[in-house]
Please model this.
Amino acid sequence: MKTVITPDYHLMLNTAIQQAQKGLKEGGIPIGAALFSTNGTLLGKGRNRRIQNNDPSLHGETDAFRNAGRQLSYTNTIMVTTLAPCWYCSGLIRQFKIKTVIVGESVNFSDGVDWLKQNGIKVIDLHSEECITMLGNYIRRNPDIWNEDIGEE
Amino acid sequence: MKTVITPDYHLMLNTAIQQAQKGLKEGGIPIGAALFSTNGTLLGKGRNRRIQNNDPSLHGETDAFRNAGRQLSYTNTIMVTTLAPCWYCSGLIRQFKIKTVIVGESVNFSDGVDWLKQNGIKVIDLHSEECITMLGNYIRRNPDIWNEDIGEE
Model:
């Protein structure tokens, strides 16, 4: 009998949520992410740092990807993010052949999800009320910063 | 009579080529990019710095985008790059509503071009022999680094 160990996605999401909370405390947009190997090892974690670093290129996923350093392959990695990835981060996931994406929520944003699925990437939505509320509250209070972050005028 | 001044795309491409050449001298992958406003003002320039900075997130386009700093709108910007953008950089262009992309070449890579066009983005290919040769030579000499940069195993 073969025992298949399923990674604990909720535990992985907690790492991303902690990054989002850290970002919020820093005065930033509360979106966090983490890149794990499929065996559960954390490779890198990060958060949206548009405000903190004055850097529009640092979305949660791209910051986690960056902090994971150079990898020869992403086939056996899982991207975990508090919010469904935007087109920029969806493109990253597709280009580097990350096979699984765990999203905390897709209520506040969801544009890339269907495209990722159409391209063979497994997207698992954990429907986290904590993620929905944390970002939803931020967006209501900071609509201009949010629109800047997703390229809306 | 209205005079419409067309930006000089070849002159803009030269800025990106200079970045690629700089990257090559640094020991990096020779791909450069620059973000201009539609009136021709340079907003930011950059180059692939995977090797130099040990940073997989810095493709030419994302480095140029980063160096342009926070912008409230990208509608009136032009992304110029020595190589047609990968999915990661194509996603960036779509998310931030950059309307025009000037590419030096699409021989060494072209995956995102049709998708960008389908999404209403104008892609102009300048078919630069200089760009084709510079990157083509690099890829032949450094196939492993190239595959790492585009997520191929």
User: Anything to note?
Assistant: The beta strands of chain A are 32-37, 42-47, 77-81, 100-103, 122-125. Chain A has a mean pLDDT of 96. The helical segments of chain A are 9-25, 60-67, 87-95, 113-118, 129-141, 143-149.
